[in-house]
Amino acid sequence: MAMRAPWVAARRWLSRSKMPELPNAGRGVNVSELLQSAMGEEEVEGAEERDVPRVRRDPNDVSVLLFPGQGSQFVGMSRGLLHYPNVRELFRAAEEVLGYDLLRLCLEGPKAELDRTVHSQPAVFVSSLAALEKLHQQQPTVVENCVAAAGFSIGEYAALVFAGAIDYAEALYAVKVRAEAMQEASEAVPSGMLSVIGQANSNYVTACLEAREYCNSLGIKNSVCAISNYLFPDGRVIAGHLQALEFLQKNSKKYSFVRVKMLPVSGAFHTELMESALEPLSEALKSINIRQPLIPVYSNVDSQKYRQPKWIQRLLAKQLISPVKWEQTMHAIYERKKGISFPYTYEVGPGKQLGTILKSCNLKAWAFYKNVDVTEDVSKQEKDP
């Protein structure tokens, strides 16, 4: 029997016409029970085939889907997706889980509110899955023939929903808890993230060490300054106390940094400064149902495929305080013997940042890259000849 398309499992949350009313769920609440009426008790058709051996296919016939992270959001995103089936249902269900009108915030802003961690993470997550609906409508074979998925930070949750590992509403609940906890952690300590373009002789380890020593001289205890994102060769994000990042900006030439730029985020994500967010997120992840992905999904923490549901639960929590190993993930997905062609890659969600990074990691793989536009005005497109 042929293997069912992964998207069938990933869309279980649309199997009923009405999503449930969700009460305010606190820590430790069993979200699986709250959402049972929406998910249904029956198994997805073809779920018994999860362990069926996969047939090796020509790379030209398969695809890889990448889901963007926080920072890709912008006012107006998802406007071009509302004509596609189920997209409004995605946002309506999100309003039930989140308690506010996410669609209106995505379409109208204000930008300052959309950019807040507590809002931007759910916005990127839902908009990415809305973009997936568009891709499924326009090019169903791309979705059905996907052989791997990965997501950058919050994008990993969208990748896992797509792969059938977590149901949409349950994943959104975890995203909500994550975003709120990270917002709170960010406000507790003045911190941030610094984008760094280096070169072969750049010394990131020494730079972070000396930045921490500088903070210690200012009386800052347990100072934090560390690489939080591995983006591409000589492309890093360093995160930590604001004073440490200011030190690096002033001394960038000493460490052979070509360019440094503060990122418009409120905290030092993927460092020890997010430790206070671990407990609430861990509790949320324990309360939801996590299954084996139907297709390989790569972890940000170790750039390896998830093997078991318990590792998904464990590593999604660990991801908060661990650097995103995106460059390593790109190598893991696209490494191949000479002469073997590359799969088509689609960035599913707002922006083209992951495509830009892929270009720097693997130019040959990038030649097969496309993004799913989330702002396209479908009604105008239909009028054009």
TrEMBL record:
Protein name: Malonyl-CoA-acyl carrier protein transacylase, mitochondrial
EC code: 2.3.1.39
Domain of life (superkingdom): Eukaryota
Substrates-to-products reaction catalysed: holo-[ACP] + malonyl-CoA = malonyl-[ACP] + CoA
Domain Malonyl-CoA:ACP transacylase (MAT): 66-368
Compartments where located: Mitochondrion
InterPro entries with a match to the protein in the record: Ac_transferase_dom_sf, Acyl_transferase_dom, Acyl_Trfase/lysoPLipase, Malonyl_transacylase_ACP-bd, Mitochondrial_malonyltrans
Coiled coil location: none
Pfam families documented for this protein: Acyl_transf_1
Predominant subcellular localization, coarse grouping: mitochondrion
Assigned protein family: Belongs to the type II malonyltransferase family.
Keywords for this protein: Fatty acid biosynthesis, Fatty acid metabolism, Lipid biosynthesis, Lipid metabolism, Mitochondrion, Transferase, Transit peptide
Biological processes per GO annotation: fatty acid biosynthetic process
Annotated source species: Varanus komodoensis
GO molecular function term, any single one: [acyl-carrier-protein] S-malonyltransferase activity
Signal peptide: none
Gene Ontology CC annotations of this record: mitochondrion
Pathway(s) the chain acts in: Lipid metabolism; fatty acid biosynthesis
Protein's UniProt keywords contain Transport: no
Class of the enzyme per the UniProt entry, highest EC level: transferase
